[in-house]
Design a protein that fits this description.
Structural class: alpha/beta
Strand order of the largest sheet: 1-3-2-4-6-5-10-11-9-7-8
Number of helices: 14
Radius of gyration: 20 Å
Number of strands: 11
Distance between the termini: 13 Å
Helix content: 25-40%
Oligomer: single chain
Amino acid sequence: MAAPVPSLAEASAGIAAGSLSPVALTEAALARIAELDPKLDAFITLTAERARSAAATAEAEIKAGRRIGPLHGIPYALKDIYDVAGVRTTAHSRVLLNNVATADSDATERLEAAGMVLLGKLATHEFARGGVNDTLPFPRAKNPWNTAHFAGGSSSGSGAAVASGMVALAMGSDTGGSIRLPAAFSGCVGLKPTYGRLSRRGVVPLSFGLDHTGPLTRTVEDCAMAMQVLAGFDPADPGSANQPVGDYLGGLKAGVAGMRLGYARAYGIEAGIDAEAQAALDAAAQALAALGAEIIEISLPALRRFEAACWTILHAESFAIHQQDMRRQPEAYGRVTFERIALGAFVTGPQYVQAQRLRHQLTQEVDAHFTRVDGILCAPAHGAAPAAVDVDDGPWRRAQPITAAFNVTGHPAICLPAGLAANGLPLSLQIVGRSFGEAELLRIAQAFEQATEWHKMRPPAPA
């Protein structure tokens, strides 16, 4: 079997040393995809010839002494809601089945400017909202640890592609947890940056007020490398924040000694996480304490308040985006997608206004914790990935993703491997940081990652 692709950091070092070429790296990634993707269904569109051409160009430039930067010549992939000029963007839907983009998204522009090599577009839930078992024009992405289990949503293909070693960097989007949950369930790293830190221009929207874009990677260092390229102000995105870009690599390995971290243990208990997930979180807090961090228990606002704000806003805004297409061609939508988005027709103006007021209150309450802690540890999910057949496909889910709290507040949050359940599926830790404090957040995550062995675990070969 073709070997997993190296991490971004490993590939970058190999290219810089001349021991690895962009062409060889791209061919290795394509070979890995050819072997695994028929079983994992992570890719919707494979841009193999484009990748080979870009890799050859990058290799020639590097040999001529014109290396652009540390990501030059390294392959990447995009969730199929990101535009790439000349490539279709389907959002995993019949509605956009023949939609060929005329311009690049901001993320595509930045990654291409860094010299990266596009491998293709990745599976998602329809419009980043539908269900895992919906009838759609493309199959669902499978969890590389066990293909009968949920890969997380909605950036399912991104998590599966990274965790299985088909690509070292994949872009996802996160409106209620759609970067962090695929990372948690597939056993890789997923960062939802601060609202407005990364541009959403050229990305199919779901909720203007809650959508975030961000990277999924094999390691925390890889995530920092990606952020160094992706972060920046984009005046063409009304939600983009004109804030200075941090140095995400400079202090990455400084450790957590002297830091104070809040452990929101009661948050997971309130959400009803299982015993294995709780044990993994407790062990993570102990590991960070052993590294010199002071761990104090804190209380986050009640989960039901986050849920009330998030889902009222999401329902209203997603319906506002889709109402014309839903009226013109309802049959083009999958059932679950249609039912979930249609709920927004029942949200009243006063309800939406009150949800926005509640959102501001919750943001202030979470901000208040950051006057005394440098990061917050909390649960990302109720446990390991459920079986795909058990994922709730109703219009109003019985168990809402508990990651959505930080879409409401906009704080940056990262998920990374923190254990294995008894059934062999990954468990995860979520760490939340100050607004625009991604550098500090990545530093905490890096310290935990390197103090444990969980980032070294790899899924078995899919059956």
